[in-house]
Amino acid sequence: GENVEQHPSTLSVQEGDSAVIKCTYSDSASNYFPWYKQELGKGPQLIIDIRSNVGEKKDQRIAVTLNKTAKHFSLHITETQPEDSAVYFCAATTFATGNQFYFGTGTSLTVIP
Amino acid sequence: SQTIHQWPATLVQPVGSPLSLECTVEGTSNPNLYWYRQAAGRGLQLLFYSVGIGQISSEVPQNLSASRPQDRQFILSSKKLLLSDSGFYLCAWDRGGFQETQYFGPGTRLLVL
Q1: Cβ pair A43:B90 closer than 8 A
Q2: pLDDT, tens digit, for every residue of A28-73?
Q3: Cβ of B46 under 8 Å from any chain A Cβ?
Q4: pLDDT > 80? residue A95
Q5: Residue A7 forms beta bridges with which residues?
Q6: What is the model's pLDDT at position A111?
């Protein structure tokens, strides 16, 4: 099955700096890669996603890049703000029966004011 | 718009007691439904998923079970809780079919003592 690895597990940045979180996957058939943000005590919320036919996608301060050859994808947050502090999860799927998502182990991002 | 509910929000149960967690989705029909468990500081582990009423697939053998008595209702149960069942339980849904994003509920925090 698919194996998703996520790095780093913790990340601290100064407010206004950029943050980058990286994920690798093992199944070359994976074709959809969402990113979720989870605040303390809450469920994960989708923040951005990318499909395999696209190399990059941007939404305001958040961007995701995908390298299918190398089987890795990254989340980029620019001009970080204290409210960006949360745990971020990447995931990958091939959309097989049941749409099973394979999640990374999460990155705890702290933005220091 | 679609909304997903989970209850209870928190639960403290003694070892050996039964469990019933409920998840309902509003504003959509025939969704795929999922139960995940998140241990403290860990990633998301898929427990069960359902593509329709009465159709349950299990990903991890354990003392938990799931049922889908109605189209938009998903229940997680146990006859006898173990200490290791403690965690944050998340329900998720997608629109069914393929290539659909999963959306998570607010979660239930379970502490087994």
Answers
A1: yes
A2: 989 899 999 999 989 999 999 998 888 999 999 999 999 999 999 9
A3: yes
A4: no
A5: A22
A6: 98
Q: What is the pLDDT of residue A94?
A: 82
Q: Say which of A44, A95, A106 has its CB closest to residue B98.
A: A95
Asked if B103's CB is within 8 angstroms of A103's CB, the reply is no
Asked if B109 reaches chain A (Cβ–Cβ under 8 Å), the answer is yes
Return the biggest CA–CA distance within chain A: 44
Reported as a pLDDT band with limits 50, 70 and 90, residue A96 is: low
Tokens of B37: 């468990």
> How near does any CA of chain A get to the CA of B75, in Å?
17
Q: Check whether B24 has a pLDDT greater than 70.
A: yes
A99–B105: do the CB atoms touch at under 8 Å? no
